[in-house]
């Protein structure tokens, strides 16, 4: 759902083709390959591997499979989503993961739009035109950690080599997206509980649903991410806000096609009310020329003319389980 990514710093809060099956296996097995690095609340070192449930006096049993690799599965309902020329409503399953391990700062999710077989018209059946997998992975490597130096500059506390990969596993190239953003990332110190990150990418576009910019470098993305803990409650729950704004620009896609644009903006506002495992999600997302479709232009997909509605609000609601 979160296309692109959300911030990476919370657990009980939100914060060329590649083989999708290998992607899923890597995401699921990653936490089992690492050892714990964090200390317990009493200042004593946690013992055992991150996936271990063994409890000792010094290391009580964790409620989660890993102390750095955060995971959740969420059932999501969406309304008026505007990444394409026509608005989409859907109900689907999402697996989300994120965390920090040494120099690696990781976020990603895998959506399964056809899991329930309900929602939009492409959701039912195995051999129809619907995509079974939509995935996004966003790794960042800390230059501070890799160099062993303090590279802070003014309010910028940390620098990263940053990437953002998006893949839609459509049934053929005209129904598939494969996009790679690469660039430089940063964390910005605010002196408050507000976490802010800024990433700047260049975009390489492989498949793009048959669009004219396939197999080319085409534009840039400026991405601002922000998150803030809003409240903690006596029942053990917490309320968290997380958001991001993506500004895509410098593309040539709209030069010769009046139904497309060279820029787009997506601004996402998410609120998560969560317990140790149970979580509730509400998201309001604003699209301006979503998916670089020109709002108000007229198209015809052999079913009569319709007006593109790529500017406006879309919404997501979800119930999930953190583990």
TrEMBL record:
**The UniProt record lists the keyword Membrane:** yes
Does Oxidoreductase show up as a keyword for this record? no
> MF terms per GO, please?
nucleoside transmembrane transporter activity
Q: Which UniProt keywords apply?
A: Cell outer membrane, Membrane, Signal
Q: Where in the cell is it found?
A: Cell outer membrane
UniProt-listed SUPFAM superfamilies? Tsx-like channel (SSF111364)
**Per its UniProt record, what InterPro entries does this chain match?**
Channel_Tsx, Channel_Tsx-like, Channel_Tsx-like_sf
* One annotated Gene Ontology cellular component of this protein: cell outer membrane
Broad class of the protein's primary localization: membrane
According to the record, the signal peptide region is 1-36
Protein family (similarity comment) = Belongs to the nucleoside-specific channel-forming outer membrane porin (Tsx) (TC 1.B.10) family.
Database matches in NCBIfam families: PRK15106.1 (NF011686)
Name of the protein this chain belongs to = Nucleoside-specific channel-forming protein
Instruction: Please name the source species.
Output: Kushneria avicenniae
Q: What is the lineage of its organism?
A: Bacteria, Pseudomonadati, Pseudomonadota, Gammaproteobacteria, Oceanospirillales
């Amino acid at each position: 759902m979160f296309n692109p990514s959300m911030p990476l710093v919370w657990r009980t809060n939100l914060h060329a083709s590649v083989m999708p099956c290998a992607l899923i296996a890597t995401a699921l097995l990653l936490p089992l390959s690492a050892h714990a690095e964090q200390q317990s609340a009493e200042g004593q070192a946690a013992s055992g591997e991150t996936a271990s449930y063994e409890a000792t006096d010094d290391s009580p049993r964790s409620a989660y499979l890993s102390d750095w690799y955060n995971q959740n599965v969420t059932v999501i309902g969406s309304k008026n989503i505007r990444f394409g020329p026509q608005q989409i409503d859907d109900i689907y399953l999402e697996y989300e993961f994120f965390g920090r391990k040494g120099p690696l700062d990781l976020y990603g999710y895998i959506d399964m739009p056809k899991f329930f077989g309900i929602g939009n018209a492409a959701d039912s059946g195995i051999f129809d035109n619907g995509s079974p997998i939509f995935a996004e992975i966003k790794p960042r490597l800390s230059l501070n950690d890799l160099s062993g130096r303090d590279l802070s500059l003014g309010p910028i506390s940390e620098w990263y080599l940053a990437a953002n990969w998006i893949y839609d596993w459509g049934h053929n190239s005209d129904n598939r997206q494969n996009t790679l953003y690469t660039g430089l990332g940063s964390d910005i110190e605010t002196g408050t509980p507000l976490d802010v990150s800024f990433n700047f990418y260049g975009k390489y576009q492989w498949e793009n649903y048959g669009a004219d910019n396939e197999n080319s470098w085409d534009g840039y993305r400026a991405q601002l991410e922000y998150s803030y803990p809003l409240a903690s409650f006596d029942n053990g729950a917490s309320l968290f806000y997380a958001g991001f704004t993506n500004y895509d620009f410098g593309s040539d896609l709209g030069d010769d096609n009046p139904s497309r644009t060279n820029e787009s903006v997506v601004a996402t506002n998410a609120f998560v009310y969560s317990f140790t495992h149970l979580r509730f999600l509400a998201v309001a997302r604003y699209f301006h020329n979503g998916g670089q479709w020109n709002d108000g232009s007229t198209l015809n997909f052999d079913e009569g003319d319709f007006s593109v509605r790529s500017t406006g609000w879309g919404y997501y609601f979800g119930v999930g389980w953190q583990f």
